[in-house]
């Protein structure tokens, strides 16, 4: 399987935060930092309680996409791979809609949401470049750069999320 598909799979498993439907009509994605709490145990717990199910649902969807891509990668069916990539891109777009719909209270979980959203935007851009019929050498360079950025962001965000969950999921 190509490095690109591997990077997308890894991103999908950690960074996506999609849900089948938005969790609320309007969230506070653009909340200014001074309107959010800082180090409020109650707010962080409440925010994790709404963010974690979104991430868990996304991870379940991502596993299905990964399994499809692994299977298709073995037999090289480019048309089928493109169809799954299109579905995966829609999953990331849905994830961002779900993330945007959350009304968070804590600056700590808000920063995680922004990082996950940014990671999803990188994945969407990677999907768009992958799905281009005639990717140029410049497109391939951009894909490699986006893959590196995505993996770094994925690792950092995963570490932050794990740390918050370990501290506040008691």
Overview of the structural elements:
Residues 1-21 form the signal peptide. With 170 residues, this protein is mainly α. The chain has one domain. It is 76% helix and 0% strand. The chain has helices at 3-15, 41-75, 78-101, 107-131, 137-168. The longest helix is centred in the middle third of the chain and has 35 residues, at 41-75. The chain is elongated and about 50 Å long. The protein starts with a helix and ends with a helix.
Note the topology:
Layout lengths: L2 H13 L25 H35 L2 H24 L5 H25 L5 H32 L2
Helix pairs in contact: 1-2, 1-4, 1-5, 2-3, 2-4, 3-4, 4-5
Major sheet summary line: none
Approximately what portion of the residues adopt beta-strand conformation? under 5%
Provide the low-confidence segments as ranges. 13-25
| Number of DSSP strand runs | 0
Mean pLDDT: 86
Helix residue percentage: over 70%
Rg calculated over all Cα atoms: 17 Å
Main structural class: mainly alpha
- Overall morphology: elongated
Oligomeric state of the chains?
single chain
Order of helices and strands: HHHHH
């Amino acid at each position: 399987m190509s490095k690109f598909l591997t990077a997308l799979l890894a991103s999908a498993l950690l960074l996506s935060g999609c849900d089948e439907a938005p969790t609320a009509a309007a969230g506070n994605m653009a909340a200014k930092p001074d309107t959010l709490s800082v180090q409020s145990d109650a707010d962080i717990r409440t925010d994790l309680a709404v963010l974690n199910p979104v991430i868990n649902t996304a991870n379940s969807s991502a596993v299905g996409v990964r399994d499809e891509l692994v299977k298709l990668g073995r037999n090289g069916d480019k048309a089928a791979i493109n169809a799954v990539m299109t579905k995966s891109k829609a999953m990331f777009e849905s994830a961002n809609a779900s993330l945007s719909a959350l009304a968070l209270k804590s600056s700590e979980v808000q920063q995680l949401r922004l990082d996950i959203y940014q990671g999803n935007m990188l994945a969407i851009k990677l999907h768009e470049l992958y799905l281009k019929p005639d990717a140029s050498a410049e497109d391939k360079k951009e894909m490699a750069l986006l893959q590196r950025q995505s993996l770094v962001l994925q690792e950092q965000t995963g570490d932050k999320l794990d740390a918050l969950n370990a501290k506040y999921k008691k």
